[in-house]
Specification:
The protein is built from eight helices and seven strands; from the N terminus they run ααβββααβαββααβα. By secondary structure, it is of the alpha+beta class. A hairpin with a 6-residue loop joins strand 1 and strand 2 (61-67). 34% of the residues lie in helices and 19% in strands. The protein has a seven-stranded antiparallel β-sheet with strand order 2-1-5-6-7-4-3.
Length: 218
């Protein structure tokens, strides 16, 4: 798609990296607030969330609009994104709506959907590219310090837990991310740090004995 390729070229430039971190999140926050969480401006072209996580040092809630790479099981929470893509902290564009960790499109028949034995966890992949800038984005430090967070995904607030990917697992997801959004290779080439990848999954509800059996008799 010519339009997508143009966006990819623009977003790979150093000029874009200087402007985007200030402009895109501000627009996303404003539109998200005005539409009461129903619309994320950047998500009109790629999947996106608003991450609410506690600050690594302050402990205060921080809201950060991020692009994301939905995995097959997570994408079924809502309708598929029409013109998806993959990025976080600033990638734009791409084709398709959801992927699995092998880089293949969601076909509607996956182990996660069918409850197959040994099915991997599925959720959303967040990429701490920071547009190829030197430092790790602040939200990655927040998730390392406080993995439990909440995301706004297509108007739904979802409690999640984040996990930093390492080793072979990270390598597999990174290959998928590069196929899904090629400018990540440019971002990584600009910096010495290894770009952080997180998988966020729905947080399991904790059921207490009292919730099951009711309060003890008086």
């Amino acid at each position: 798609m010519p339009g997508v390729r143009l966006v990819q070229r623009v977003s790979s430039t150093r000029a874009f990296a200087k402007v985007a971190p200030h402009l895109i999140p501000a627009l996303d926050r404003a539109v998200h607030r005005l539409t009461r969480g129903k619309v994320l401006l950047s998500a009109q072209m790629l999947p996106g969330i608003v991450l609410t996580a506690r600050g690594a040092r302050s402990g205060l809630e921080r809201r950060t609009p991020l692009a994301c790479m939905p995995e097959a099981g997570a994408a079924r929470v809502g309708d598929e994104t029409g013109a998806g893509g993959a990025a976080a902290t600033g990638g734009t564009g791409g084709t398709g709506g959801s992927v699995d960790t092998g880089g293949t499109p969601d076909t509607g028949r996956t182990p996660e959907a069918e409850g197959g034995a040994g099915a991997p966890e599925s959720g959303w992949i967040l990429v701490g590219s920071n547009f190829g800038r030197t430092g790790h984005p602040a939200w990655t430090a927040n998730l390392l310090a406080h993995p439990d967070a909440v995301i706004s995904w297509k108007g739904e607030d979802i409690p999640v837990t984040a996990r930093l990917l390492t080793g072979e697992e990270r390598a597999a997801v990174w290959r998928t991310a590069l196929a899904f959004w090629p400018p990540y290779a440019t971002y990584q080439a600009r910096v010495d740090r290894e770009i952080r990848l997180f998988r966020i999954v729905r947080r399991q509800a904790t059921v207490t004995p009292d919730a099951v059996d009711g309060p003890p008799p008086a």
